[in-house]
Amino acid sequence: MCGYAMAPMATDLTCLFATTAGTGLCIASANTFNQLMEAPYDAQMSRTRNRVLVRKVISPLHAASFGTITGILGVGILSAMVNPLTAILGASNIVLYTCIYTPMKRVSIVNTWIGSIVGAIPPMMGWAACTNSLDLGAWVLGSILYAWQFPHFNSLAWNMRYDYTKAGYHMMVNANPALNSRVSLRYSLLLFPLCYIIPYIEMTTWWFALDSTIINSGLLLGAFRFWKNSNDKTARDLFFGSLIHLPVILALMMAHKKNWRTDNQKYDLEDISDTELKNITK
Q1: Pick the CATH number of 135-265 from 1.20.120, 1.10.3470, 1.10.357, 3.10.129
Q2: What is the DSSP code (8-state) at residue 160?
Q3: Which Pfam family, any one of them, does this sequence belong to (predicted)?
Q4: pLDDT > 70: percent of the chain
Q5: Is residue 245 over pLDDT 70?
Q6: How far apart are CA 60 and CA 175, in angstroms?
Q7: Are 265 and 216 in contact (CB under 8 A)?
Q8: Which of these, 150, 131, 171, lies nearest to 242 by C-alpha position?
């Protein structure tokens, strides 16, 4: 929704609702197939052992049917009621999550970088839904979501590291704990310049640069402590800090958004001749 709200176009509530519904259905489809594929391994992890497929509350056939139906409906809604570009992004995210990210978790730590792409695409879908394009603003929004996921997920993974090992997942936190915390710190730092690009390309006022610096500094402090001394407490602090960080950053971004419509209307008035302007104001 933030991607749609930040796009430089007039808001169409029908399109917004269709985008939200279609994106939600695509996410439901991807998550369903993910849990279907990982049910035997989820049973070995404390965080996931109570999922419905693990407890056999529903059958694999029901799950596969639900995943297929929600995927078709989600992409169909985006294609018919939004635009083909947004539908392609939605379909691509389903494929990326289920066919690349999910199996790669058992092969290589690169899965974390692939999974972060999955999380970066939804705001780009919102932008594409509004503009039918992927302008620089869409890529910056996606990059912010991409970078945020490393301190978020790597701190979560720290307290799940023994479960990941038991279930046979190849995660950064198991293969190289020092890299796990170092990557969290690096991407927390990256959030600063990414947020500064937002006012630079005139998506927001420069007040967002100031506000985002304060919020990003809080996340960076947590990431620094996690890097300096990785333990359950610093990981937990960073994880919960990331849960607060993202909605606050996005809310501030929308609060400081420049009034594109007003600016465009001013430019339009400058192009109107004096005679036409008098007729309009009569």
Answers
A1: 1.20.120
A2: T
A3: UbiA
A4: 90
A5: yes
A6: 32
A7: no
A8: 150
Q: What is the pLDDT of residues 15-42, one digit of tens each?
A: 889 999 999 999 999 999 999 998 888 8
Average pLDDT over residues 143-149: 96
Q: Domain extents for the chain?
A: 1-133, 135-265
pLDDT for residue 265 is more than 60: no
Query: What is the rounded distance in angstroms from the CA atom of residue 83 to the CA atom of residue 16?
Result: 12
Cα separation, 280 vs 274, in Å, equals 10
CA 70 to chain centre: 20
CATH architecture for residues 1-133: Orthogonal Bundle (1.10)
Nearest 10 degrees: CA dihedral of 196, 202, 203, 206?
50
Rounded Cα gap, residues 32 and 39, in angstroms: 10
